[in-house]
Design a protein that fits this description.
The structure holds 2 protein chains of 2 kinds.
Chain A lengths: L6 H8 L12 E7 L4 E10 L2 E10 L2 H14 L4 H6 L2 H8 L8 H16 L7
Antiparallel strand pairs in A: 1-2, 2-3
Chain B lengths: L27 E2 L10 H13 L10 H20 L7 E4 L2 H16 L5 E5 L8 H10 L2 E5 L9 H9 L3 E7 L11 H10 L3 E5 L11 H4 L3 E5 L10 E5 L1 H6 L10 E4 L4 E3 L13 H17 L1 H19 L5 E4 L10 E6 L4 H10 L2 E2 L1 E3 L4 H7 L4 E5 L6 H17 L3
The chains are: A alpha+beta, B alpha/beta.
The complex binds pyridoxal-5'-phosphate.
Pyridoxal-5'-phosphate binds next to helix 3 of chain B.
Chain lengths: 126, 412
């Protein structure tokens, strides 16, 4: 079996969850992966300080798309306060595959976008 | 039947990196468009210079300093002669990016004003876009783009139409595109540009390493390239310019070496080419580049081009065997430089490069510093395989096998 391109990664890549537009939405952000020009945006609907629903849009590699898809399931229902605290390890652990230094930004792009929408902080998750 | 035409070079043994093993495997390097590997003679020249001839240039009277001076100037002679230029109008920079910035700054700020236009093309590298954006924003000028057609080529009629508008001061364009591979008709373009009273700047970063370049017949006012793609070391680029233009221009960077004399409040400029070489130049790097172009001349640039064209033709032929693969740029190897950018249906270019690496094959993926072009092509990114003098048909075979294996991983 492939270390990186596990079945579930490819499954999420081919049929990503929570992709599309969400209108109306309360928060949004759009980010690029400077490495490859990939683009990922998010629409978030908030209720009682929590992410009620969200949708990603854009294009990217298997790692970035699968990471966004997997994260989207966890993010639903999470309080904005908790979202602001999420770090790189959270995402990498969730992804469950060995991510090389060059592919790290692919994996973290979705968290960067979501944190940007929620907190306005556009830094790469550390 | 041999897959590639008879006229192939066999020089891999000259490049020591190919003796290295990566997890027991040979290096299959198809990324020469990004940077070339270096022959032993260049590595030796760098080491020999640092070991035996190192001193700063231009100011020393002792014998060692004179040796360093002579080595640096001899490198300039070799580099100039390699492309049919004069040594005094051949300026060493850090890379082609700095050379283009030099023109945008020194020539551009004196000659481009409000209401003027700078014309570039949709196939430019960011190095030949961003300096013009900054110049135009600063001067209130407009930046216009020549379109790339569906074959990945420019149209001379469109160039004529742009020039006829009468506001174009400079046209800056790539000799060979680093994404499409397109070889632009430089001589025909510079003739039209000159006739319209505009200035031409050609980005030869991809051209000089792979084809004979004769500045006399190309007719460009400025021609810039970068050493590390032409078998030379990193840290050295080259700018050639027409003497009258260079003489009129103010310096780009200022400081030591570029002055004739310095007063408390002012300074006067050194003669060409030193006026544009502020500070200690890349001495060892220039020496290395001199040996690199000597090595290329030894192979014969027509043989280099024949070798790489044959490999490119073979690559184009083999790549289309991969289901879902689409190559961008001119369809015939005749009309393109030694590279192929492509997309593979169902697999993102980043993953394509990762999967190629599983087969031990080094290719590049991304926007190749040409985001406007990517937008025109309607893709976010491509994968790119590019060949150099040391590549062989078996490298292309390895790429195709890796791509097919990659499709299986993705269940395609
Ligand atoms: C066409 C072209 N122009 C400019 C550059 C920039 O070269 P450098 O980074 O050496 O300045 C490159 C290489 O990346 C290129 O392919």
């Amino acid at each position: 079996m492939d270390d990186l391109y596990r079945d579930y990664i490819l499954e999420h890549y081919k049929r990503p969850k929570n992709f599309g537009e969400l209108d109306p939405h309360d928060l949004e952000a759009l980010e690029h992966n400077p490495l490859c020009g990939d683009e990922l945006g998010v629409h978030i609907r908030v209720r009682d300080g929590r992410i009620e629903d969200l949708r990603f849009h854009g294009h990217g590699c298997a790692i970035s798309q699968a990471a966004a898809s997997i994260a989207s399931e966890e993010l639903k229902g999470m309080s904005l306060k908790d979202v602001a605290e999420l770090d790189a390890d959270w995402m990498i652990d969730l992804l469950g595959i060995p991510v090389s230094a060059t592919r790290r930004k692919c994996a973290l792009l979705n968290l960067k976008v979501v944190r940007g929408a929620v907190t306005g902080d556009r830094a790469w998750p550390a | 039947m041999p897959p590639v035409a008879e006229r192939t070079l066999e020089v891999r043994a000259d490049f020591p990196i190919f003796a290295r093993r990566f997890d027991g495997r040979e290096l299959i390097y198809l990324d020469s468009g990004a940077t070339s590997q270096k022959p032993q003679v260049v590595i030796d020249a760098l080491a020999d210079h640092l070991q035996s001839h190192n001193a700063n240039v231009h100011r020393g009277v002792y014998a060692l300093a004179q040796e360093a001076d002579a080595a640096y100037e001899e490198a300039r002679q070799k580099v100039a002669a390699f492309v049919g230029a004069a040594a005094e109008t051949t300026i060493f920079t850090k890379n082609v990016t700095e050379a283009i910035n030099l023109i945008a700054y020194s020539w551009g700020r004196a000659n481009v004003g409000a209401g003027d236009a700078v014309l570039i093309t949709q196939m430019e590298h960011h190095a030949n876009i961003v300096p013009w954006q900054v110049l135009c924003r600063e001067r209130g000028a407009t930046l216009r783009y020549l379109e790339v057609d569906e074959r990945g080529e420019l149209s001379l009629e469109a160039l004529d139409a742009e020039l006829a508008r009468g506001d174009v001061r400079i046209v800056a364009f790539a000799h060979v595109s680093n994404v499409l591979g397109t070889i632009n008709p430089v001589a025909e373009m510079t003739r039209r540009i000159r006739a319209a009273g505009a200035i031409s700047l050609v980005d030869g970063a991809q051209a000089v390493p792979q084809m004979g370049v004769d500045l006399g017949s190309l007719g460009a006012d400025f021609y810039a390239w970068t050493g590390h793609k032409a078998l030379g070391p990193t840290g050295v680029g080259v700018l050639h310019g027409r003497r009258e233009l260079l003489e009129q221009m103010e310096p780009f960077l200022t400081g030591g070496d570029m002055i004739a004399s310095v007063d408390f409040q002012s300074a006067s400029w050194n003669e060409l080419p030193y006026k544009f070489e502020a500070g200690t130049p890349p001495i060892a790097e220039a020496v290395g580049l001199g040996v690199a172009v000597e090595y290329l001349s030894g192979l014969g640039m027509e043989n280099v081009r024949a070798h790489e064209r044959a490999l490119t033709a073979y690559m184009l032929e083999r790549l289309v065997e991969v289901p879902g693969l689409r190559v961008v740029g001119p369809p015939e190897a005749e009309h393109r430089g030694a590279l192929a950018s492509f997309t593979l249906e169902g697999i993102h270019p980043h993953d394509v490069a990762e999967l190629a690496d599983r087969g031990g094959v080094c290719i590049r993926a991304g926007h190749h510093c040409a985001q406007p072009l990517m937008r025109c092509l309607g893709v976010g990114a491509t994968a790119r395989a590019s060949v150099g003098v040391y590549n062989e048909a078996s490298d292309i075979d390895a790429l195709v096998s890796a791509l097919n294996a990659g499709r299986e991983v993705f269940g395609l």
